[in-house]
TrEMBL record:
Lineage top rank: taxon: Bacteria
PANTHER family for the chain: CYCLIC DI-GMP PHOSPHODIESTERASE TM_0186-RELATED, LIPOPROTEIN
Protein name in the entry: HD-GYP domain-containing protein
Keyword hit for Iron-sulfur: no
Region annotated Disordered, chain positions: 439-479
Spans traversing the lipid bilayer: 6-24, 70-93, 105-123, 143-165, 223-241
Key words, A-Z: Membrane, Transmembrane, Transmembrane helix
Species: Streptomyces qinzhouensis
Cited SUPFAM superfamilies: HD-domain/PDEase-like
């Protein structure tokens, strides 16, 4: 979002006015300015560099790593004073997108209001902000409620700014605001990411850390001891950044390989992505864990990567293939297995790349495996591959309706496909639906009278050269 719409300016102004209304009592009532100043300085020190200390620019810090400071303020100070703690740090925080001033002001108002809500909730549950430390462990429940209030207010405010700044429907805005782990201020006026829904659990952890800071702050050891509570946050920040750098490298590797296949075998552009999506639908129906879901998605996306080893003239040949050319194409699973051999994170996905053209009756290739000897991922990808091929419109064939394609898969279950995988796909599509696709920019076949395009919406995919998929399989049904 390069410019902020007028509605978003009005929304931010409303948040600022709300913040002023919340903090005004701190200027009229007795306030522990020393505690407020120290906490505000600590939060500003955490936010100012935008990076973990001692590691330079190589390690970005998520603002949520320092929410325990704000929650500690909510547990130590009256609501109006606690809200002020967030303001200096938010105004000094790093903003990567314009308009920076609006985003910083929005972030300050958003965090101030959330901190005020946390402190107010904490106080309403019977915990007075007294000079002594919070009454631990009796303060656990009020602290948890305060952390959840902090989370909820952040989510509601984020939902509102998304709806006004990006004109999203309320439901879509709420889902976007609730995406756990959303990047700070990504495309928004400085928002700290989606904090509701599944992300409530991390906020409870922040609340516990904030309560520990508050207890230590008022203990005989003093404020210095409370700072050490942030050390686990720095460590988790480092681990989080390492994980996301590794994930980004994985995605870049997959993207490069997919682009290479799309360039060489253009008429199946988008096929790998859809096979990956269908594979995940099947795997989720089989209740595979999240780690395996990611692996089976990679397997589906890269199942045809071995076509990089097949001569382009064969892949793009318009006429029938000779027996020799067909044997060359049948080598593509082995080529794919070799291409991905050195990519450690693929692991189980490589077996699917190698065996996705095996058949349950043992007549497939490259090794003629049968039954349960075929790796599970390969049986998943085989069904997803055939389904997408039958439901995608290409220059030489029109898409089959989804129900027709599923009936064809069921007809071939037990001989060519694993019946469990076919049944899982049928159940998943009954629940989630599917969109057929066009994978060629050539003129389509004349309209058919049997309603071949009667299925869901048909998104158009970019250019693809004509020519059938030469890999043996049920492109026009099971063989």
């Amino acid at each position: 979002m390069r410019s902020v719409p007028a509605a978003a300016y009005a929304y931010v102004l409303g948040a600022v006015l709300g913040t002023l209304w919340c903090v005004l009592p701190a200027l009229r009532a007795p306030t522990s300015w020393t505690t407020l100043g120290l906490l505000a300085a600590l939060y500003a020190l955490c936010e100012l560099p935008g990076h973990c200390p001692y590691t330079g620019d190589s390690l970005p810090v998520r603002p949520g790593s320092f929410f325990p400071v704000l929650l500690a303020a909510a547990f130590l100070l009256p609501p109006a004073a606690a809200a002020l703690v967030a303001v200096p740090g938010a105004l000094l925080s790093r903003v990567d997108r314009r308009p920076a001033a609006v985003r910083r002001i929005w972030r300050a108002a958003q965090l101030a209001l959330a901190t005020w809500a946390a402190a107010r909730t904490y106080a309403l549950l019977g915990v007075d902000h007294i000079p002594g430390p919070p009454d631990f462990p009796y303060a656990l429940l009020p602290a948890a409620a305060g952390a959840l209030a902090f989370c909820l207010v952040l989510g509601l405010l984020e939902c509102g700014v998304l709806a006004s700044a990006e004109r999203l429907p309320p439901r879509s805005a709420w889902r976007s605001a609730g995406a756990p782990g959303g990047p700070a201020g990504a495309g928004r006026p400085g928002g700290p990411g989606g904090p509701v829904g599944a992300a409530a659990v991390p906020y409870l952890v922040h609340g516990l850390a904030g309560l520990m800071m508050a207890v230590l702050w008022r203990s005989p050891y003093g404020p210095v001891s409370a700072v050490f509570v942030l050390l686990p946050m720095y460590i988790s920040c480092w681990l989080f950044a390492q994980y996301h750098r590794e994930s980004a490298a994985h995605r870049a590797t997959i993207r490069s390989l997919v682009q290479a296949v799309d360039i060489k075998d253009r008429y199946t552009r988008g096929h790998g992505e859809r096979v990956g999506r269908a594979s995940v639908l099947i795997a989720r129906e089989l209740r595979m864990d999240e780690e395996r879901l990611e692996a089976v998605r990679f397997a589906g996306i890269l199942h045809d990567v071995g076509k990089l080893g097949v001569p382009t003239r064969i892949l793009r040949k318009d006429g029938p293939l000779t027996p020799h050319e067909r044997r060359v194409i049948e080598l593509h699973p082995e080529y794919g297995h070799e291409i991905t051999r050195g990519i450690g994170f693929l692991r189980e996905a490589r077996e699917a790349i190698l065996h996705h053209h095996e058949r349950l009756d043992g007549t497939g290739y490259p090794h003629g495996l049968a039954g349960d000897a075929i790796p599970e991922f390969a049986r998943v990808v085989a069904v997803a591959d055939a389904f997408d091929a039958m439901t995608s419109t290409r220059s030489y064939s029109r898409a089959r309706p989804v129900p027709v394609a599923l009936k064809e898969l069921e007809r071939c279950a037990g001989a060519q496909f694993d019946p469990r995988m076919v049944t899982a796909l049928v159940r998943a599509l009954a629940r989630d639906g599917w969109e057929t696709a066009v994978t060629s920019d050539e003129p389509l076949l004349p309209p058919q009278r049997d309603g071949a395009q009667a299925t869901a919406a048909v998104p158009r995919h970019p250019a693809a050269a004509p020519g059938p998929d030469r890999s043996p399989g049920p492109r026009d049904g099971c063989r």
